[in-house]
Write a structure and sequence with these properties.
Number of helices of chain A: 8
Oligomer: heterodimer
Largest sheet of chain A: none
Strand content of chain B: under 5%
Number of helices of chain B: 8
Largest interface: A-B, 92 and 101 residues
Strand content of chain A: under 5%
Number of domains of chain B: 2
Number of strands of chain A: 1
Number of domains of chain A: 2
Largest sheet of chain B: none
Structural class of chain B: mainly alpha
Radius of gyration of chain B: 18 Å
Chain lengths: 193, 172
């Protein structure tokens, strides 16, 4: 019971003081989980992050579930995850309730017109960084460029849902593998890595 | 009824949004188109609030969207829906950790999803730009913030506050 309570407190604190989620959470979580409580080593924590980033869902939630599970099984996983999302749930609900009342004021409307531009600029920066990360030093860049172009064309001209795009992109990754098997018509050679 | 629908839709987002909080944005655009629970302009406001408050972006977005749609319980249900797939999947992976990470099929899926996700975010960004950049003055503000934020990379909260001040100052 005591350790579950500590787990809850650590992740609640992390949720309360992290802005933006994802890797922004790493320094705080390192201080709590690695240095203070010694629940995991730094390498283990970094492993949780790299897995959390490439599995479905929110990175912060994935990492919390991982830490909690390693420490105390399923109950630990649920405790850590509840703790990390609880500050968001409380703060956002309060803001949403207040915002509804003041949204019609001209000052608030102007502020949000400005904020929308700021968000657009930040998102443009993020897209740029993501693109750079995906296409630089990538041996499969031609396949990935084709997936990107096809997905974007489908989104603009086809009005295809986001879920379908993710599924099709995943399937498209297997095209080269499929072609290779057909060319060889012999036993598969997949032991390259 | 609305609660089931909220849970189902956010469960789907939790399952398919791979790569972090911003990836939820295109999925939320799909929601606003399909159900009209909120307008796209409200969605952009939500992104701004979510980015400038503590907590993971995706969780904040789910709470905000759920609240807009069905009040406090809506916020709780949307957030639960979003996190449920994560909890299930991560617990499964934690049990078979080493095998999962090295599997070549898993690697192929993960690396080929990334350019698809980039296209998703780009098209969402395009829609957001369309809503926010309403004339030449907002366009100039956008360009200014973009260039400044590329040169001085500080916390996004700083740029959100700055853009709020600019918005009030110019009476956008």
């Amino acid at each position: 019971m005591n350790i579950l309570w500590k787990l809850f407190a650590s992740f609640f604190k992390t949720g309360l003081f992290t802005f933006g989620g994802g890797y922004a959470m790493l320094p705080l979580l390192k201080a709590e989980v690695v240095e203070k409580q010694k629940w995991a080593t730094e390498d283990e924590l970094l492993d949780y992050f790299s897995i959390g980033q490439c599995t479905p869902g929110i990175i912060a939630v994935n990492v919390s579930t991982f830490c909690g599970y390693k420490l105390k099984g399923v109950i630990g996983a649920i405790t850590a995850t509840t703790a990390i999302i609880l500050p968001s749930l409380i703060i956002i609900t309060l803001i949403a309730a207040v915002l509804e009342k003041y949204m019609h004021l001209p000052v608030v409307a102007s502020a949000f017109a400005g904020i929308r531009l700021g968000v657009t600029a930040l998102l443009a920066g993020l897209i740029f960084d993501m693109g750079k990360k995906i296409f630089s030093k990538n041996p499969h860049w031609h396949l990935h460029a084709a997936i990107f172009t096809a997905a974007f064309a489908l989104l603009i001209f086809g009005n295809v849902s986001a879920v379908l795009i993710v599924i099709m992109a995943a399937a498209a990754g297997f095209i080269p593998r499929f072609c290779r098997i057909k060319e060889k018509t012999g036993p598969e050679e997949n032991n390259k890595k | 009824m609305i609660y089931w629908l909220l849970f189902y839709e956010f469960f789907k987002i939790g399952l398919f949004a791979i790569g972090g909080g911003a990836v939820t944005i295109p999925f939320l655009f799909d929601l606003s188109e399909q159900y009209h629970w909120f307008t796209t302009e409200q969605l952009v406001n939500m992104i701004a609030v979510s980015e400038s408050t503590p907590g993971p972006l995706g969780v904040n977005m789910a709470t905000f969207t759920g609240y807009q749609t069905a009040g406090i319980s809506g916020g709780i249900i949307a957030t639960t829906g979003l996190t449920t797939p994560s909890v299930i999947i991560i617990i499964l992976i934690a049990k078979l950790l080493s095998r999962f990470a090295c599997n070549p099929y898993v690697q192929t899926v993960l690396s080929s999803i990334r350019p698809g996700v980039l296209a998703l975010i780009l098209s969402a960004g395009w829609q957001i730009a369309d809503i926010s950049i309403t004339g030449w003055l907002p366009g100039a503000v956008f360009a200014g913030i973009l260039i400044t934020s590329r040169i001085y990379k500080t916390s996004p909260i700083f740029y959100i506050l700055l853009s709020a001040v600019i918005g009030i100052g110019l009476q956008l």
